[in-house]
Structure formats: C-alpha cells, structure tokens
C-alpha cells in the first residue's frame, strides 16, 4: 500500500523552527558585526551632526569667456561629488546654485578637513620639462644662489642626494634606451629659440642652475618674474601664470622637505587626461607611500617620447615637473625611458598620496573655482527636527500598537514581536552601512524609517485577515494558518515590490537628502519581506499549535463568535424547521 505524500502545507508547517533559527543567526551576526567594528550608532548627516557648508564660485578664464555654462557646472559638480565621496565622506551634498555657484555640504565627523582641501581643487595636471630651478625666495629676500639640483643616476630610478626631491620609476621592467646625443636639446627646442631661458648645470654636489641673461623682451620679462617671485606668497603664485596656456613656458613653485623651490618649466607635452588611473600604495622595497599612475595608449606614447628626450640631459634639465593647479607636486629626474606605468615617490604621507591619487583618478574640473564662503553648520536645528520626528514616530507607533491590541488581540503579540525584529535589523544595518558604504542618517532617512512602520504593519494585517477569512469559511485554526499563507504571500510580495520600485525610482531621479529617504524606504521594504517570511509566518505556525489559539479563546483574535462562526467548527449543521401540517 503506497504511503500518501505529505502535503506542501504540512511540510512547511512542521519545520518553522528552521526559519526562526535562521533569522536569529542573522541578528546575532549583525550585532556581532557592530561589536567587531566598534560602531554602535549610525553615522549622522550634516542636518543632524552639523558640519561645513562651502560655496564655490566659478571664475572666467582668459580666452574662455563662455566657459561658465550649465554643462560645465554640472560636470564640475559631478567631479566634486565623486572626489569627496571617494574619500569616504558620505552624505556630502553637492549641487549647483544659480549660474556660477556650487554648494558643498560636508558632515562633521568625516574627513572634513581633507575633503575641504580638495573640493575646489581644479586638478589641472601637466607634465612639464624643468628648464631652471632655484631657491623659492626672490632676490634680496634670501639666498640668491640656486639650490643644488638632483643628481642623475644611471639606473632606472632618479635619486636626489641633497634636497630629497621625488623620483619617477618605470613600473615595467624596460631596459634603458641607448644614450642619445642629439635628443637632449629637443625639450628646449620645442620652445621658440629666442624665448627659451637657457640653463647651465655643473656636475657634482655643487651643481647650480640659474637663468642666463637674455636680450629678448619676452624672455627677459620671464626671467625678471622668476627672480622676483616669492613662493611663500600664494596670491603671487596664482597670479604669475594668469592667461598662460599649456604650450607656454611657466614659472611654478613646489615644496621639498619643507623648503620652497621655484622653477621655469617648458611647454606641457603630457596632460592629466593622458592618465588612465592612479592609486596610492606602499612601495614594498622602500616602505614609503607612492602614487602609481597608468597612462592611456596615447598618453604612454607621449610620456615615453618626453622621458626619452630628458634622460640624457644634465641636471636639472633631466627632470620633469608634475604640475597640479600651477604648483609643482613632484619634480623627478629621469635616467631611462618610461612607458605606460610610472610611480611618483618622495616624501609622501598616506594622506598626501591619497589626495594626489584621488584628484588624478577623477580628473580635472572644467572651470576654476574660488571659495566664496565657508559656513559652519550646527546640528541644533536638525536636532530639534529630529526630536519632533521621533516624537511623531513614537505617537504613530503607539497608535498602531493600540489598534493591533484592540482589533487583533492575541495576534498583536506576533505583530509586535515582528516589529521589534524589524527594528533590530534596521538599526544594525544602518549602523554597519555607515563604515561599509558611507551611509549617513539624515532627517529624510528618519522619515523613511517611520513610513516603513506602516508598510511592515500592513503585511501583518494582510496575513491575519487571510487567516480570519479561512476560519469564516469553516476551517479550524491550524489549516487556516497554512491555507491563508499562499494568498497572503502573493499580496505581500506585490505590495512590497511596488514600494521598492517607487523607492528605487526616487533614489535614481533625485539627489541629495531625498536619496536618504528613498534608500531607507527601499531597505526597510526588503527587510519587511525577510521578517514576514522568516519570522512572522513561522511564529504564527508555532502559536497556532497552542490551545490558546486552537481553542478560539476570546482574546486570541481568532474567536469564532467574533468572526461570525458558530463553534465547534465544521460540526454545526443547519437546524431543520418542523413542517407545519397546514403548510403540507
């Protein structure tokens, strides 16, 4: 005799402990993650934690009267947003205001200072050959003699014996190219012969470089500016190259081990757009922080051609300067032809290396900005609004609890336990997502969490009403619980899908704080599915086996009398009215 197969409902009913055990494991893992990370509260956005609000104003550049337009402003805002968030500063709000302003809000408690330094950095990057270098103070203020130049090495690296200047290393194991006898002048020949400041260099530790006198007016003017420039004056450094193009020689300053140096640099042959990607890493041999750069295909060819010209030059003309926003970040010397990958090393700290890699990775801003205003935002107003929101949420939760207790009675215990489980999962996830992906809780996100209370409660109500419908049709409690689940499950999934779709669309099409509301709403909607499937349904199955519910206690919420059914279930027959003899 064949054994009858156990129904799907019976099988699901007999193993609710597995689902409950799984969700307990999930909650323990999340709470353990909080203790492991040492983070016990969610990160707060600028409206709740306070922070800094920076207003940037775009400036017209010489020769580009129409550069300030909507396209460039949107591009600049996008680059600034990626830079700031690339540093781990979450909930940084970047948006355009008017025709020429960008507002950047940076929450407190993040890399606020570091982010502020990079917010308005234009990140115009150029690789320029060094023509002359000397001390960073003008004639009459300091030593007029030139600073000793770095000595060129014969291997694949360049070293600096006196000033500790940076060095460029070819990451590929390429063999140094043969020494060229005529290529060395190509760097200076790319300038007009009558406009190129010549440089003399002596070998040995006493090597010095200084501009030689010139009768050409343009060259004489450049030399005069070079000698008079004080590198400690930021305004002077910014103003001296106004209107200069990438094809023009420029005067620039840079720091090496705390000492200023100034340079006359030739035209740029390689730009920041030729850098494919960059990354700050630790050199395994030296243990120092370095910046690794990978060039594009076209950039590799340009860089190889440039370094091939420089490698046979005497110091300092065998150096190329990495110029970022007019300042020399590094001036490594070259002793071999460098190709696709290059390494910038020197006296980098972790922060400075990451800063340089960050701006190189996300590219240059299409416009020049200056800080119009910097305002410190307090959390007082946001704190008041948060308190008001929490009070509103508590009132709403209390009303939901009262409704559940009055209308569903014993079933309300299941609903409240499910709400508590959902709250634990939501809180722990919000706390862990802070350090993981940079999520920060702001006021709209709090609103999203409050709205989620209603979404979660709605799922319980759908299930409870399906169970009641089955009981009204004459079924006992245990079969009613299992038969109601497929119908309730379908309704819950459709409802949550619509909510999640709305949250996803809202997150995609909006910016700033509204995304916090959409993210929280979507997260809690997914958690609602997890809680209903792994907690509410299994718990309901277990409690349906107790006498309190199966017996139809008046406080169980499944009392047949209150539901319009006469007990005992499925045994009540309609009474037969005796036939009146007169009617017969």
Helix content: 40-55%
Low-confidence stretches: 1-13, 142-211
The neighbouring-strand order within the major sheet is 4-7-6-12-11
**Beta-sheet strand percentage?**
15-25%
- Helix/strand structural class: alpha+beta
Tally of extended strands?
14
Describe this structure in words.
- This protein is α+β, with helices and mostly antiparallel strands and 584 residues long.
- The chain is 45% helix and 16% strand.
- The chain is built from 16 helices and 14 strands.
- It has helices at residues 8-14, 16-37, 46-49, 70-86, 112-119, 186-189, 217-228, 234-239, 297-310, 350-362, 380-408, 411-437, 443-472, 477-509, 513-543, 547-550; strands at 51-59, 93-97, 101-107, 125-135, 167-170, 250-256, 259-265, 270-271, 275-282, 289-295, 320-324, 327-330, 341-348, 368-377.
- The strands form three sheets. Strands 4-7-6-12-11 form a five-stranded mixed beta barrel. It has a four-stranded antiparallel β-sheet with strand order 2-3-1-14. Strands 5-13-10-9 form a four-stranded antiparallel β-sheet.
- A hairpin with a 2-residue loop joins β11 (320-324) and β12.
- The longest helix is centred in the C-terminal third of the chain and has 33 residues, at 477-509.
- It is elongated.
- The two termini are 53 Å apart.
- The model is unreliable at 1-13 and 142-211 (pLDDT under 50).
